[in-house]
Sequence to fold (286 residues):
Amino acid sequence: MPDEKTFDHLFLGVGAMKAGTTWIYDALHRHPDIHFCREKEVHYLYARHINANILSDRARMRRAKAYLAFDPEISACPTLQKRVQWTANWLNGPVDDTWFNNLFVHRGGARWIAEFSNLTALLPIEAWAELHARTARLRVIYTLREPMDRLWSHVRFHLKMQNASHKLNEWSLDELEDHIRTGGDYLDHTNYAAAVARMQAALTPDCLRVDFFDRIPADPRGFIADIERFLGLPSHNLPDDIVSRVVNPSPPHPIPDGLAERFADDIATQIEGLKDLGITTPRSWG
Fold:
C-alpha cells in the first residue's frame, strides 16, 4: 500500500565526527524508550546510498568476530542466546531495509529505534528525501563543534587509530596541511553548511535538530533533556558517572602554530554558511 512505511520511529545521530556523539549515545542508550542495537554505528544508510562495501559480507564477518566473544565462566546462557541471535541477523544478507529492521529484534517496548553514524551526514538530498518518505516518524540530531577544534581532534584521532601519532611531531606545516586537504575525509566532515543544507532541503523542520558540542560540558543534563523533548519522551535519570565521562578522547597535542591560519577561510565559510541557513553559532566560534 502506498502509505505503508518501512520504519516507524527512527532516531538518527549523524555527527559531526568528534562532536560528542559517543557521549550522547552513552547517555541515551540507557533510556527505556530508545533502543540501539548491539552496534552503535551500523552505517546502513551510508552503505545503501554511497558505499555498499562498508557492509559487505566480509566486512560484517570481521565485525561479528567481536560480537561472539564471551567467557563461559561468567556469561549467562540467555544473554549469550540473544547475542547469537542478533549476530545471526547481522550476518544474514542481503543488506536491505528488512536486514536493518531485524537488527532491532530485541527492541521490546522501546518507542524509538536508533543508530548513530557520522557517515549518515554525508547522504545526498535524494537519500534524505527517500528516507523521510518511508519513515512514519523520523528524528535527526546533528551536533556541531567549533570547526577548527573538530578538525584538529579528527586528525589526532585518525592518526592514533592508524598508529601514526608520531607524524604530528615529524610533519612540516605544509605536509600537515596537505594531509588534511588530500589525505582523507577531514574536510567533508567539517562541511557543516553543506550537510545541514541537504537535510533541510529534504526534511521537515520538526525532523531535524542542530545543536552544539559546547553545550555538553556546560549543561550535560539540559542537553540530554532537550533531546528527550525533541523525541517526545519523558526524562530519564542521567547518572553522575555519565555526566563526567570523557569517551573516545583524541591524544593531547597542541595545534601547531600557523595551522589555524591555513584553514581560516574554510572555517569562515562554514560559519557564514550556517548563518545563511538560519543557524546562529556560539560566540566562542568567533
Summary: The longest helix spans residues 77-91. The mean pLDDT is 93.
